[in-house]
Each structure stands twice: as C-alpha cells, then as structure tokens.
Amino acid sequence: MFPNFRHAGNFTSRFNFLNVDDFLDILRWRKSFGVDTPDGRDVKQGVVGVFAASAFNPRENVYFKDGSTLSLAQYAARRRLQLVTAADFNEKLRDRGGPRSLTVQKVCRRARDEDEVKEALEALWKKPDNASEFLEELRMRNEDLCKFEKMLESPDTTR
Predict the structure, then answer these.
(1) Residue 88, class by beta-carbon neighbours within 10 Å (0-12 exposed, 13-18 middle, 19+ buried)?
(2) 114: pLDDT strictly greater than 50
C-alpha cells in the first residue's frame, strides 16, 4: 500500500491497548512479517504496522504497570506503529487519483465485514479511478445487510 516500507494494517473504531497488542502479536507470528530472534519472536526490520482509527487523541497517554507514562506518539514510535486517521487515509486515496467522494467511511459502511473492507481498500488503492462503480457494486452486493442495519438504527415505532 505504501511504497517505502512493508506494511500490515488493522482497522478498528478506537485506540485500544488490547487491540494494539493483538495486532502486534499477529505481526510477530505471521510468516511474512515476523522473525525469530535470540530474545524470542519479533516483527521483521522494515515492517511498520499501520493502525487506523476514526480519530486519535494526541494528548492521550499510555500508562504502564510500573507507573511510567508515554505519549501516544512515543508509544506508537517505540512499537513501530504508524497511526493513521480516516482523514489521513482519505487524503492518501485522493493523492492516488481517487475522487473526492471516495472515503474510507463509505467503504466501511458498505462492506460486510473487516475482510471485505481490507479487500475493498486494496482494490481501490490499485484502481482509484473505478471508485464510483466499485462502491455501487459493493452497496448492491451487501444491500440486504444495509437494509437490516438501517432497520436497527431507526426508532422503534411499534412500542
């Protein structure tokens, strides 16, 4: 996805330490991203995890059991993570030639699950000029799910 380094990605709705630790465990143990070291399993040199969320609070601190704290940016740098917001990712899609109407949020709303989000973003990254047709196809493919979610979001008038 990003030309200067190998990457792995995870999309989640908020910064959560359990999710970050799970994400790093996946990187460590994946054959393509992990390596055995004398100190145990670690992420290969040059692999930067891309952890995306709708927003990050830059003033948030990470607290450790020993009482020490790090800023979120310092923690991400030490863990070799790149924190990417949806707005940052939207900008990268536009830089690659995607239309202004193409957003990560639209892809997430139209996709059935996380795997489909990943596949859709990868396809849109490769061919951003087909975004309108691709998003419409995605919407049509998952129309039943969209109707169900809208039904759940609407106020219940039967009570």
Answers:
(1) middle
(2) yes
Nearest to 24, CA basis, from 46, 43, 5, 6: 43
Tell me the pTM. Answer: 0.57
With b meaning 16 or more CB within 10 Å and e meaning fewer, what string describes 21-54?
eebbeebbeeeebbeeeeeeebbeeebbbbbbbe
Token pair for 41: 């399993």
Could you tell me the CA-to-CA distances from 48 to 8, 25, 55 in Å, in that order? Answer: 7, 13, 19
Q: What is the pLDDT of residues 87-109, one digit of tens each?
A: 888 898 899 888 988 888 888 88
CA gap 118, 141 in Å, rounded = 16
For residue 65 the two structure tokens come to 């059991």
